[in-house]
């Protein structure tokens, strides 16, 4: 190595063997502590969340035929029927999870931050970033109407009966 | 150090010396009960010996003994043995940091008492609140104090931060302590928020629901970019906080563990670092004029480096080499480095009495508040029906107003920008002039006042505009969400403040003035937004001039 380079302030001495071993020991200690820390952080994330099944039986299908609106406040959803069939609309505001209420004109409002949705669940004012979700409906073998609260469907989908 | 470590030692040596002599005498005399007699006399001596072993100095009657009292006590040694006169002025700090600490201790004590009855289960939490309210002697009182102290602590921490900022106390060498202070500010808010869920009433349930949805709100951004399926940071944060999809038993126990264990522990650790750094960074900030030797004081240096200070009738000789050898390690201005001892006072009694007075006053105010004003408790949590309006505690209401424009920007984006921005201030503004002076002098006062006016105009016009005309979605219902996420009243205000601060920096040619502008913007908008959301937001988060206009159900 030429002498000029070694004298320049940017020149870094090569790591000696003794220093290398010391640094390696230090880094392995650091890395193992870090990995152990990551291991402890894994615990708060359970593999299965303690939730009841997302599919809930709502009652015999006949009950819903032709009934314009049925409310399920405990499940936070409504079941509507129009000329094409049945559909379920979530009552959970897409902004911050408050439960929306229904207005006289058929639209919805959120009491927490004033989001508004039209009768089809589309967000028309306020901070809600998305329309109210349409939930999947199907009929179980025993003739009951079932809603899947975790499955969102396209807003044009109807359960024909 | 060695020279003043053991003032009580001679005393101790004398007494133990006497004992040794006695023991020797006993040993010499061939009496069968000699050791027993020693034992007895040792027993009689024990209280005095115990006191000497615990406290090694005599009564703090002299300056020297008073210094020893502070220096050798593990709890007091966080204070210097002598304190600068300026630091003792009420207007230097208004005691705000100390009040915050006192409230933290008060919260610790009342919190432990409440834990005796509180059961963190969704079935029993609300009942244990009722139990505390109606059955447990002083239960309601303790809960009230806990609640008022929590509110007081948030207020004092914010005011303390403002004091530190306006007196330039974030400047070198105190940059890191300012960052530690910001961490403590965030921890204080986190403690308040986690405590809010524990009563399991309507307010608690819906505040926690909103809070956890704010943790999930990065989905607003990832949804707009269509990457939520692969990168769902929002869902991860929410699940980490709640341990479930909804606020329930898992969430309650997590908030409980955070509130009574994790966060208090972290806060204590950061507090220790905070106090330690005050000492290591050279005490409280003071203007350079405070270090001038007052009239009537003469300094007489001698050949060995000692300085004799004559201030009126008091004469003190200080030998910096001998007594304060370790001070060489301490950076910054120490009371004695080329300055007069005349401007300092012994910590005992002057600072300790001031501390005791502030502590007493703080506790008295909390007792009075707790006695006369009850902490609210709404009806039992009902997951089907939200409160209307569902309002967070006052210090989060400014944020709630921002959240009502965009969940992500109001709840995550803007707060993160503000906290990180304030943490960076000491590294961006490194001017060293006028440290310790409120607002850095008359020019700073003008800038602060001008910025306050500018902020008031900006906030009020944005609020008026939003209330009167709505925002983008009211005009263009099909507008993509990402536009609203980045262009909403909150971000518009933020951009206005940043632009104003750059303008001030350019016009005054001073980074300190820019920093004053940034902080004033933050402080004034915090105050106005908090006021606005507290008073003028009613059911459905609509605007009302006063609560009396709220619709009756």
Report on the architecture of this protein.
The complex is a heterodimer of chains A (161) and B (553). Chain A is of the alpha+beta class. Chain A folds into 2 domains: 3-42, no CATH class; 55-153, Rieske [2Fe-2S] iron-sulphur domain (Rieske Iron-sulfur Protein), CATH 2.102.10.10. Chain A has helices spanning 3-7, 17-42; strands spanning 55-60, 69-72, 77-82, 85-90, 101-102, 108-109, 116-117, 123-125, 134-139, 144-153. In chain A, a hairpin with a 5-residue loop joins strand 7 (116-117) and strand 8 (123-125). The longest helix of chain A is centred in the first third of the chain and has 26 residues, at 17-42. The model of chain A has no long low-confidence stretch (mean pLDDT 85). Chain B is mainly α. Chain B is built from 21 helices and 5 strands. Chain B has helices spanning 9-28, 34-54, 63-71, 90-93, 96-115, 125-134, 139-166, 175-197, 202-216, 218-224, 233-242, 249-280, 320-323, 347-372, 394-403, 407-428, 442-469, 472-475, 481-486, 489-508, 511-535; strands spanning 82-84, 297-301, 307-311, 314-318, 344-346. In chain B, the strands form 2 sheets. Chain B has a 3-stranded antiparallel β-sheet with strand order 2-3-4, with no helix packed on it. In chain B, strand 2 and strand 3 form a beta hairpin. Chain B is globular. The A-B interface holds A 44-46, 49-51, 73-74, 76, 95-99, 109-114, 122-127, 129-130 and B 206, 209-210, 212-214, 217, 220, 223-224, 239-240, 243-246, 248-250, 254, 383-390, 400, 403-407, 410-411, 470, 473-474, 477, 481, 484-485, 539-542.
